[in-house]
Write a structure and sequence with these properties.
It contains 12 helices and 12 strands. The chain has 330 residues and is α/β, with parallel strands linked by helices. It has 2 domains: 119 residues, Rossmann fold (3-Layer(aba) Sandwich); 191 residues, Rossmann fold (3-Layer(aba) Sandwich), CATH 3.40.50.720. The strands form 2 sheets. It has a 7-stranded parallel sheet, sandwiched between helices. It has a 5-stranded parallel sheet with strand order 2-1-3-4-5. α1 crosses α12 and α4 crosses α6. The two termini are 26 Å apart. Bound molecules: nicotinamide-adenine-dinucleotide (NAD). Nicotinamide-adenine-dinucleotide (NAD) binds next to α4 and α6. The site of nicotinamide-adenine-dinucleotide has 29 residues, from α4 and α6. It comes from Massilia arenae. Belongs to the D-isomer specific 2-hydroxyacid dehydrogenase family.
Length: 330
Protein backbone atom coordinates (compact mmCIF):
# COMPACT_ATOMS: atom_id res chain seq x y z
CA UNK A 1 0.00 0.00 0.00
CA UNK A 2 1.31 3.48 -0.87
CA UNK A 3 2.13 5.21 2.40
CA UNK A 4 3.40 8.75 2.95
CA UNK A 5 5.58 8.93 6.05
CA UNK A 6 5.80 12.51 7.37
CA UNK A 7 8.40 13.93 9.79
CA UNK A 8 10.66 11.07 8.72
CA UNK A 9 14.09 11.14 10.37
CA UNK A 10 16.98 8.81 9.59
CA UNK A 11 15.94 6.36 12.32
CA UNK A 12 12.32 6.36 11.10
CA UNK A 13 13.48 5.43 7.61
CA UNK A 14 15.74 2.61 8.78
CA UNK A 15 13.45 1.13 11.41
CA UNK A 16 10.21 1.42 9.40
CA UNK A 17 11.90 -0.06 6.32
CA UNK A 18 13.18 -2.97 8.48
CA UNK A 19 9.67 -3.62 9.82
CA UNK A 20 8.15 -3.46 6.34
CA UNK A 21 8.19 -7.19 5.57
CA UNK A 22 4.95 -6.76 3.58
CA UNK A 23 6.61 -4.55 0.99
CA UNK A 24 4.38 -1.50 1.38
CA UNK A 25 5.50 1.38 -0.84
CA UNK A 26 6.85 3.88 1.70
CA UNK A 27 7.29 7.51 0.64
CA UNK A 28 9.51 9.19 3.25
CA UNK A 29 8.96 12.93 3.68
CA UNK A 30 11.16 14.90 6.07
CA UNK A 31 8.70 17.82 6.38
CA UNK A 32 5.97 18.03 8.97
CA UNK A 33 2.46 17.38 7.72
CA UNK A 34 0.69 20.75 7.37
CA UNK A 35 -1.89 22.12 4.92
CA UNK A 36 1.06 23.17 2.73
CA UNK A 37 2.75 19.74 2.66
CA UNK A 38 -0.37 17.52 2.53
CA UNK A 39 -0.06 17.48 -1.27
CA UNK A 40 3.07 15.34 -0.90
CA UNK A 41 0.79 12.46 0.14
CA UNK A 42 -1.15 12.51 -3.14
CA UNK A 43 -2.08 8.98 -4.15
CA UNK A 44 -1.22 7.50 -0.74
CA UNK A 45 -4.02 5.55 0.89
CA UNK A 46 -2.11 5.54 4.18
CA UNK A 47 -0.40 8.49 5.84
CA UNK A 48 1.98 7.92 8.73
CA UNK A 49 2.57 10.83 11.12
CA UNK A 50 4.29 11.77 14.36
CA UNK A 51 3.44 13.96 17.36
CA UNK A 52 4.16 17.37 15.86
CA UNK A 53 2.40 16.81 12.57
CA UNK A 54 -0.71 18.89 12.36
CA UNK A 55 -3.54 16.54 11.46
CA UNK A 56 -6.37 19.03 11.82
CA UNK A 57 -9.68 19.31 9.95
CA UNK A 58 -8.11 21.28 7.07
CA UNK A 59 -5.35 18.71 6.53
CA UNK A 60 -7.78 15.79 6.82
CA UNK A 61 -10.06 17.33 4.18
CA UNK A 62 -7.07 17.64 1.84
CA UNK A 63 -5.92 14.08 2.53
CA UNK A 64 -9.41 12.66 2.01
CA UNK A 65 -9.67 14.45 -1.34
CA UNK A 66 -6.35 12.84 -2.35
CA UNK A 67 -7.58 9.33 -1.48
CA UNK A 68 -6.17 8.77 2.01
CA UNK A 69 -8.10 6.21 4.08
CA UNK A 70 -5.79 5.73 7.06
CA UNK A 71 -3.76 7.99 9.33
CA UNK A 72 -1.32 6.00 11.45
CA UNK A 73 0.49 7.91 14.16
CA UNK A 74 3.81 6.55 15.42
CA UNK A 75 2.80 7.48 18.98
CA UNK A 76 0.42 6.64 21.80
CA UNK A 77 -0.93 10.17 22.23
CA UNK A 78 -3.19 11.38 19.40
CA UNK A 79 -4.01 14.91 20.57
CA UNK A 80 -2.44 16.19 17.31
CA UNK A 81 -5.19 14.50 15.29
CA UNK A 82 -8.77 15.75 14.94
CA UNK A 83 -10.43 12.35 15.34
CA UNK A 84 -13.94 13.76 14.76
CA UNK A 85 -12.91 15.35 11.45
CA UNK A 86 -11.18 12.12 10.40
CA UNK A 87 -14.37 10.18 11.02
CA UNK A 88 -16.38 12.68 8.97
CA UNK A 89 -13.97 12.19 6.07
CA UNK A 90 -14.05 8.39 6.37
CA UNK A 91 -10.39 8.25 7.44
CA UNK A 92 -9.53 5.69 10.10
CA UNK A 93 -6.98 6.75 12.72
CA UNK A 94 -4.68 4.27 14.42
CA UNK A 95 -1.99 4.77 17.03
CA UNK A 96 0.46 2.55 18.88
CA UNK A 97 -1.05 1.65 22.23
CA UNK A 98 1.35 -1.09 23.19
CA UNK A 99 5.00 -0.23 23.06
CA UNK A 100 7.53 -0.30 25.81
CA UNK A 101 6.01 1.88 28.54
CA UNK A 102 9.31 1.24 30.31
CA UNK A 103 11.05 3.53 27.81
CA UNK A 104 9.11 6.58 29.01
CA UNK A 105 8.88 5.62 32.70
CA UNK A 106 12.63 4.98 32.92
CA UNK A 107 13.38 8.27 31.17
CA UNK A 108 11.13 10.14 33.61
CA UNK A 109 13.19 8.69 36.47
CA UNK A 110 16.37 9.70 34.64
CA UNK A 111 15.12 13.28 34.25
CA UNK A 112 14.16 13.40 37.91
CA UNK A 113 17.62 12.24 39.00
CA UNK A 114 19.29 14.60 36.55
CA UNK A 115 17.45 17.67 37.83
CA UNK A 116 17.52 16.75 41.51
CA UNK A 117 21.20 15.73 41.60
CA UNK A 118 22.28 18.27 38.93
CA UNK A 119 23.90 15.56 36.83
CA UNK A 120 23.92 17.52 33.55
CA UNK A 121 25.44 20.59 35.26
CA UNK A 122 28.06 18.44 36.97
CA UNK A 123 29.00 16.81 33.68
CA UNK A 124 29.46 20.20 31.98
CA UNK A 125 31.63 21.33 34.91
CA UNK A 126 33.95 18.32 34.92
CA UNK A 127 34.48 18.63 31.16
CA UNK A 128 35.83 22.11 31.88
CA UNK A 129 38.05 20.87 34.70
CA UNK A 130 35.75 22.26 37.41
CA UNK A 131 35.31 19.72 40.20
CA UNK A 132 33.66 22.11 42.68
CA UNK A 133 30.46 20.80 44.32
CA UNK A 134 28.93 24.19 45.13
CA UNK A 135 25.39 24.40 43.70
CA UNK A 136 25.12 20.66 43.05
CA UNK A 137 23.33 19.56 46.23
CA UNK A 138 20.14 17.54 45.80
CA UNK A 139 17.91 15.62 48.18
CA UNK A 140 17.39 11.91 48.92
CA UNK A 141 14.41 10.48 47.09
CA UNK A 142 14.19 7.74 49.70
CA UNK A 143 11.40 8.57 52.15
CA UNK A 144 9.92 11.33 49.96
CA UNK A 145 6.41 11.44 48.48
CA UNK A 146 5.99 11.12 44.73
CA UNK A 147 2.69 12.13 43.13
CA UNK A 148 1.73 10.48 39.85
CA UNK A 149 -0.97 12.14 37.75
CA UNK A 150 -2.27 9.50 35.34
CA UNK A 151 -1.67 5.97 36.60
CA UNK A 152 -2.01 4.07 33.34
CA UNK A 153 0.75 1.96 31.79
CA UNK A 154 3.60 4.48 32.04
CA UNK A 155 2.52 6.14 35.29
CA UNK A 156 2.26 2.80 37.09
CA UNK A 157 5.71 1.65 35.96
CA UNK A 158 7.14 5.02 37.03
CA UNK A 159 5.40 4.56 40.41
CA UNK A 160 6.86 1.06 40.76
CA UNK A 161 10.39 2.32 40.14
CA UNK A 162 9.93 5.19 42.62
CA UNK A 163 8.53 2.77 45.16
CA UNK A 164 11.76 0.79 44.70
CA UNK A 165 13.66 3.96 45.64
CA UNK A 166 11.80 3.90 48.98
CA UNK A 167 9.33 6.67 48.10
CA UNK A 168 5.70 6.90 49.21
CA UNK A 169 3.63 6.91 46.06
CA UNK A 170 0.31 8.71 45.69
CA UNK A 171 -1.76 8.94 42.53
CA UNK A 172 -4.53 10.85 40.86
CA UNK A 173 -6.56 9.41 38.01
CA UNK A 174 -10.11 9.26 36.74
CA UNK A 175 -9.95 5.48 37.05
CA UNK A 176 -8.29 3.39 39.72
CA UNK A 177 -5.67 0.97 38.41
CA UNK A 178 -5.39 -2.17 40.59
CA UNK A 179 -1.71 -2.53 39.53
CA UNK A 180 -0.99 0.92 41.00
CA UNK A 181 -2.78 0.05 44.24
CA UNK A 182 -1.01 -3.34 44.40
CA UNK A 183 2.35 -1.61 44.69
CA UNK A 184 1.11 0.47 47.61
CA UNK A 185 -0.05 3.50 45.61
CA UNK A 186 -2.83 5.48 47.29
CA UNK A 187 -5.34 7.52 45.27
CA UNK A 188 -6.03 11.06 46.44
CA UNK A 189 -7.49 14.25 44.95
CA UNK A 190 -5.25 16.38 42.76
CA UNK A 191 -5.10 19.25 45.28
CA UNK A 192 -3.99 16.95 48.08
CA UNK A 193 -1.47 15.30 45.74
CA UNK A 194 0.10 18.64 44.89
CA UNK A 195 0.19 19.70 48.52
CA UNK A 196 1.94 16.58 49.81
CA UNK A 197 4.27 15.59 46.95
CA UNK A 198 7.98 16.34 46.84
CA UNK A 199 7.94 15.22 43.21
CA UNK A 200 5.00 15.36 40.79
CA UNK A 201 5.19 13.42 37.53
CA UNK A 202 2.64 13.77 34.73
CA UNK A 203 1.50 10.66 32.85
CA UNK A 204 -2.02 11.48 31.66
CA UNK A 205 -2.96 12.21 28.03
CA UNK A 206 -3.50 15.76 26.78
CA UNK A 207 -7.24 16.36 26.47
CA UNK A 208 -9.50 19.38 26.90
CA UNK A 209 -9.84 18.32 30.52
CA UNK A 210 -6.12 17.99 31.21
CA UNK A 211 -4.96 21.07 29.26
CA UNK A 212 -2.90 23.18 31.74
CA UNK A 213 -3.66 20.75 34.55
CA UNK A 214 -0.55 22.36 36.04
CA UNK A 215 -1.17 26.12 36.12
CA UNK A 216 -0.52 29.14 38.35
CA UNK A 217 -3.19 28.04 40.86
CA UNK A 218 -1.98 24.45 41.14
CA UNK A 219 1.65 25.57 41.39
CA UNK A 220 0.72 27.93 44.24
CA UNK A 221 -0.91 24.96 45.99
CA UNK A 222 2.07 22.65 45.44
CA UNK A 223 4.57 21.83 48.16
CA UNK A 224 7.22 24.57 48.17
CA UNK A 225 10.42 23.46 46.45
CA UNK A 226 8.87 20.39 44.81
CA UNK A 227 10.07 19.06 41.46
CA UNK A 228 7.77 18.75 38.44
CA UNK A 229 8.49 16.12 35.78
CA UNK A 230 6.61 16.11 32.47
CA UNK A 231 7.24 13.36 29.94
CA UNK A 232 3.65 13.31 28.75
CA UNK A 233 2.56 16.32 26.66
CA UNK A 234 3.61 19.97 26.79
CA UNK A 235 0.04 21.26 26.88
CA UNK A 236 -0.50 19.75 30.33
CA UNK A 237 1.61 22.55 31.78
CA UNK A 238 1.19 26.32 31.61
CA UNK A 239 4.84 27.05 30.89
CA UNK A 240 4.71 30.76 31.74
CA UNK A 241 3.28 29.82 35.15
CA UNK A 242 6.17 27.40 35.78
CA UNK A 243 8.63 30.20 34.97
CA UNK A 244 6.92 32.39 37.56
CA UNK A 245 7.03 29.58 40.15
CA UNK A 246 10.69 28.85 39.41
CA UNK A 247 11.56 32.54 39.89
CA UNK A 248 10.05 32.59 43.39
CA UNK A 249 11.42 29.19 44.39
CA UNK A 250 7.88 27.80 44.79
CA UNK A 251 8.88 25.24 42.18
CA UNK A 252 12.21 23.70 43.15
CA UNK A 253 13.00 22.05 39.83
CA UNK A 254 11.50 21.31 36.44
CA UNK A 255 12.33 18.37 34.18
CA UNK A 256 10.53 18.28 30.85
CA UNK A 257 10.78 16.12 27.77
CA UNK A 258 7.80 17.84 26.17
CA UNK A 259 7.01 21.51 25.68
CA UNK A 260 3.83 23.28 24.70
CA UNK A 261 5.37 25.03 21.70
CA UNK A 262 7.65 22.14 20.73
CA UNK A 263 6.24 21.71 17.22
CA UNK A 264 8.44 24.41 15.71
CA UNK A 265 11.56 23.37 17.67
CA UNK A 266 11.87 19.70 18.43
CA UNK A 267 13.27 16.93 16.24
CA UNK A 268 15.54 19.30 14.31
CA UNK A 269 19.01 20.77 14.71
CA UNK A 270 18.59 24.51 15.31
CA UNK A 271 22.04 25.02 16.82
CA UNK A 272 23.13 27.35 14.00
CA UNK A 273 20.02 29.50 14.01
CA UNK A 274 18.62 32.20 16.29
CA UNK A 275 15.87 30.68 18.42
CA UNK A 276 13.04 33.20 18.64
CA UNK A 277 11.06 31.34 21.29
CA UNK A 278 11.87 33.41 24.40
CA UNK A 279 10.00 31.05 26.71
CA UNK A 280 12.17 28.01 26.00
CA UNK A 281 15.28 30.21 26.14
CA UNK A 282 14.22 31.48 29.58
CA UNK A 283 13.52 27.93 30.73
CA UNK A 284 16.89 26.53 29.72
CA UNK A 285 18.59 29.44 31.48
CA UNK A 286 17.50 28.18 34.93
CA UNK A 287 20.07 26.02 36.72
CA UNK A 288 17.28 23.84 38.15
CA UNK A 289 15.60 23.06 34.82
CA UNK A 290 16.38 20.28 32.40
CA UNK A 291 14.80 20.12 28.96
CA UNK A 292 15.07 17.24 26.51
CA UNK A 293 13.56 17.16 23.03
CA UNK A 294 10.79 14.54 23.30
CA UNK A 295 13.07 11.53 23.46
CA UNK A 296 11.52 9.51 26.31
CA UNK A 297 10.19 6.91 23.84
CA UNK A 298 13.50 6.64 22.03
CA UNK A 299 14.77 3.13 22.80
CA UNK A 300 15.50 0.25 20.43
CA UNK A 301 12.65 -1.76 21.95
CA UNK A 302 10.06 1.02 21.76
CA UNK A 303 10.90 2.16 18.22
CA UNK A 304 10.99 -1.43 16.95
CA UNK A 305 7.49 -2.06 18.33
CA UNK A 306 6.15 1.29 17.08
CA UNK A 307 7.29 0.49 13.54
CA UNK A 308 6.00 -3.12 13.62
CA UNK A 309 2.58 -2.01 14.88
CA UNK A 310 2.40 0.76 12.27
CA UNK A 311 3.14 -1.71 9.46
CA UNK A 312 0.57 -4.17 10.90
CA UNK A 313 -2.09 -1.44 10.83
CA UNK A 314 -1.32 -0.58 7.20
CA UNK A 315 -1.44 -4.28 6.28
CA UNK A 316 -4.75 -4.71 8.13
CA UNK A 317 -6.27 -1.83 6.16
CA UNK A 318 -5.01 -3.30 2.88
CA UNK A 319 -6.53 -6.69 3.71
CA UNK A 320 -9.79 -5.20 4.99
CA UNK A 321 -9.14 -6.63 8.47
CA UNK A 322 -10.18 -4.89 11.71
CA UNK A 323 -7.80 -2.17 12.89
CA UNK A 324 -6.60 -3.25 16.35
CA UNK A 325 -5.16 0.09 17.44
CA UNK A 326 -7.93 2.36 16.21
CA UNK A 327 -8.31 5.48 18.33
CA UNK A 328 -11.59 5.79 20.20
CA UNK A 329 -14.17 7.28 17.81
CA UNK A 330 -14.96 10.89 18.58
P1 LIG B 1 -2.47 5.16 29.41
O1 LIG B 1 -3.72 5.38 28.61
O2 LIG B 1 -2.08 3.77 29.78
O3 LIG B 1 -2.58 6.01 30.78
C1 LIG B 1 -3.07 7.32 30.83
C2 LIG B 1 -3.78 7.47 32.16
O4 LIG B 1 -4.18 8.84 32.30
C3 LIG B 1 -5.05 6.61 32.27
O5 LIG B 1 -5.02 5.84 33.47
C4 LIG B 1 -6.17 7.63 32.29
O6 LIG B 1 -7.30 7.21 33.06
C5 LIG B 1 -5.46 8.82 32.92
N1 LIG B 1 -6.19 10.06 32.75
C6 LIG B 1 -6.96 10.46 31.71
N2 LIG B 1 -7.52 11.65 31.98
C7 LIG B 1 -7.09 12.02 33.21
C8 LIG B 1 -7.32 13.14 34.05
N3 LIG B 1 -8.15 14.13 33.66
N4 LIG B 1 -6.70 13.18 35.25
C9 LIG B 1 -5.90 12.17 35.66
N5 LIG B 1 -5.65 11.07 34.91
C10 LIG B 1 -6.24 11.00 33.71
O7 LIG B 1 -1.32 5.89 28.60
P2 LIG B 1 0.26 5.69 28.75
O8 LIG B 1 0.71 4.68 27.76
O9 LIG B 1 0.60 5.50 30.17
O10 LIG B 1 0.77 7.11 28.21
C11 LIG B 1 0.53 8.29 28.96
C12 LIG B 1 0.91 9.50 28.14
O11 LIG B 1 2.33 9.54 27.97
C13 LIG B 1 0.39 9.52 26.69
O12 LIG B 1 -0.93 10.02 26.63
C14 LIG B 1 1.36 10.42 25.98
O13 LIG B 1 0.85 11.75 26.04
C15 LIG B 1 2.62 10.33 26.83
N6 LIG B 1 3.75 9.71 26.12
C16 LIG B 1 4.90 10.42 25.98
C17 LIG B 1 5.99 9.86 25.32
C18 LIG B 1 7.31 10.60 25.17
O14 LIG B 1 8.17 10.15 24.40
N7 LIG B 1 7.58 11.68 25.88
C19 LIG B 1 5.88 8.58 24.77
C20 LIG B 1 4.70 7.87 24.96
C21 LIG B 1 3.63 8.45 25.63
Amino acid sequence: MKTAVFSARRYDKTMLANANQEGHELRFIEDRLTPATAVLATGCEAVCVFVNDSVDAEVLALLAAQGTRLVATRSTGYNHIDAAAAEQHGIAVVRVTDYSPHSVAEFAVGLLLAVNRKIARASVRTREGNFDLDGLMGFDLHGKTVGVIGTGKIGTIFARIMSGFGCTVVGHDKFHNPAFEALGGRYIGIDELLECSDVVSLHCPLTEETHHIVNADSLARAKRGSILVNTSRGGLVDTEATIGALKTGQLGGLAIDVYEQEASLFFQDLSSTIITDDVIQRLVSFPNVIVTGHQAFFTVEAIGQIMRTTIESITALERGEPLRDRVPRA
